[in-house]
Structure formats: C-alpha cells, structure tokens
Design brief:
mainly alpha; 434 Repressor (Amino-terminal Domain); 352 residues; 4 domains; Transcriptional regulator
C-alpha cells in the first residue's frame, strides 16, 4: 500500500481504521473481536497486540502487511534503569517530553508488570522527575501525569500511604501548572483509593472529595471523574446517587465530541460497563451485575491478567450472592493474583 513505516504502529492503526470506515474503536473491536480498551491501547502505542490480533487487524483494514511489519518493528518496552534516571532527567533538552515518554512506558508496563515489581522503578523515576522539575515549570503537567501513575502503581503494590502521597504531589504539580483537570484527576484517584477502604469514614471522605472535583473536566474526562464518584456512592450504600451518577457517565461519554485527555485514555464502553457492574455488586443487585460483568469480561484481553482478574472477583461475588456458589468458587480458583495487592486482597476476602 506504500503507507510507509515512519508512523508508529498506533498512528497507522488509527489512520487505517478511519480510512476503512470504522468510525469508532468499539466498531473495530467488535470485528476483531477484542475489547475496545485493547484498540484504545493499541492506538495509543501503550500495548503490543498479540501477533494473531495484528494479522486480523491487517486483514480487516486491508493493510497488505503494513501493520504486521509495523508491529514487528516496534521496540519492546524496557524497564528504565533506576541508576540512570537522574542523569536522564538532568541532561534532557526537553524535560517535559522525557517525563511524558517515561510515563507512557510505565502505563504500558503497568498492563503487564505487577505493582510490587514495578513500583520501585516508578518511585525512583518520580523522585528524579520531581527534583528536575523544580527548575522547569513547563514540565509540571508531565510531572502531574507521572505522579498519578506513581499513585496507581503504589496502590497496586499495597502501599496505600505512598500512593496517597503521589496523588497529592500530582495534584499540587497540576495546580502549579494551572491544569485544574489534571488536579481533579489526581484527587479523584485518591478518592477512589479512599472508597476502597474498609473504613466507612474513608468512604464518606471519598464521596466528598470525588464530588468536589467532578465538574473540573469535560467530555470523557468528566465521565471518568463521575465514575469514581459513582463508586464512592456505591461503597457507602447510596443506591440512588450511584444510579444517578452512572446514568450521567453514560450520557456524557456517549455525547463526548472531543478526544479523551491523556489521563483518561483508557476509559471506554467496556470499562464503564464494568464499573456499573461493580456498583451493582456493592449495592446487592447481583443479577444485574452478572449480566454486565459477563458481557465486559468476555471481551477483555486475556493478557491483561490483573484487570481481568480483578473484575472476575466481582463477577464471582455476584454469583455467590445469587446462590451460584460452585461457579463462584470455580472462577476464584482460576483467577491468578497477578502480583497485584488489589487482586490478592479481593481473592483473600472472597475465599475467607
């Protein structure tokens, strides 16, 4: 086709999808079939597709081998070397671009490397980036994005206090950069962490925090902020508020006419379905939860072990609440811990 391989794989995939008449990532995902979240990650160059998926995409889009060659040419993501991170940042001609690229790498690695393994590297990178950014205000938005990744990975490693610190650092950097949407994202991530606490006091604080920042973004970004508010409502048992906010998420996401902000790149219809299903589990509506979670998990990429495992624990809980104990036990027995404190905590709680 002569499209050339100067494009990244993701950029080529997006261009060919649009040329082939697939107006949305979801439409292409159904044709493959994979989850829309996979297509989102592929186009953002944050996940390498399985070779069989690449071949299917190539055939569907009439790429005549260009996508296969582009995928083969992609360098494998590698863990940044902790001992060299300070030097990388200190000598960068464009500090913001370097931090942004490291953030992109960590986001990709986070899909496949457990929090316990990844967090020490993220922590060192974040500390080095923070030192370098003290004299470079233009890099503050990038530091805020990296801080959010640091919070998420720390939480997955079971280090909740460290995660909270990273989220607050990210919010502070975003405020200094005059990016209220980025600050809202960091604070809503902290609210999500609080909502997952066993403490009802923490959950109540999560409602207050998530609601206070829910209007600081638009489009897909606001849909993500509202998702976290809905989860906080569900965790305190407020069914009517959770339902109202979930309906708002659906409406805002469906009518969004602008690309998702970088911090909400992963939000898609399947993730929204999963969140509604999880809320139904929390609110003791297992029948609805089973339908929602089964639909989304069936489309989820098996290679994303942690997310699939985490969501499967909620499906198992819904099955148990419906009296289908044998099927719930079977699902739990087949769910790996994925070196994730989140998944392991869910498995321990449900298997106790």
């Amino acid at each position: 086709m002569g499209t050339g391989l100067a494009e990244t794989f993701g950029a080529m995939l997006k261009r060919l999808r649009e040329v082939a008449g697939f107006a949305s990532q979801s439409a292409l995902a159904r044709a493959v079939p994979v989850s829309p979240s996979n297509i989102s990650r592929y186009e953002a160059d944050r996940q390498d597709p399985d070779p069989t998926v690449v071949e299917r995409l190539d055939a569907l889009l009439g790429a005549e081998g260009d996508l296969v060659r582009a995928a083969a040419a992609r360098p494998a993501a590698a863990l940044p070397t902790p001992s060299g991170i300070d030097l990388v940042y200190a000598t960068a001609s464009d500090l913001g671009a370097v931090i942004a690229e490291q953030t992109r790498q960590f986001q990709q690695l986070d899909d496949f490397v457990g929090g316990r393994e990844l967090y020490p590297v993220v922590r060192r990178a974040l500390a080095a980036a923070s030192r370098a950014a003290t004299s470079n205000a233009r890099a503050l938005p990038n530091l805020a994005e990296l801080g959010q990744v640091g919070g998420w990975v720390a939480s997955d490693a079971g280090k909740q206090d460290a995660a909270a610190g990273h989220y607050l650092t990210a919010a502070q950097a975003a405020d200094q950069a005059e990016r209220p949407d980025l600050a809202a994202s960091a604070l809503s991530s902290l609210a999500y962490q609080l909502a997952n606490s066993d403490s009802m006091t923490d959950r109540a604080e999560a409602v207050l925090l998530a609601s206070s920042v829910a209007d600081r973004a638009t489009g897909v970004g606001q849909a993500l902020l509202l998702e976290r508010l809905a989860w906080a409502h569900a965790r305190i048992g407020d069914a009517s508020s959770a339902a109202r906010v979930l309906d708002a998420v659906d409406e805002i996401y469906a009518t969004a006419d602008e690309p998702a902000p970088q911090w909400a790149y992963w939000l898609n219809e399947d993730e929204i379905t999963v969140m509604r299903g999880r809320c139904m589990v929390e609110l003791d509506r297992p029948a609805a939860a089973i339908d929602l979670l089964t639909t989304a998990i069936d489309r989820y990429d098996p290679s994303l072990v942690r997310e699939r495992g985490l969501y499967t624990t909620y499906l198992a809980e819904a099955l148990a609440k419906s009296g289908e104990l044998d099927e719930a036990r079977r699902l739990l027995a087949a769910t790996p811990g994925a070196d994730s404190a989140r998944v392991e905590a869910r498995l321990r709680a449900l298997c106790a």
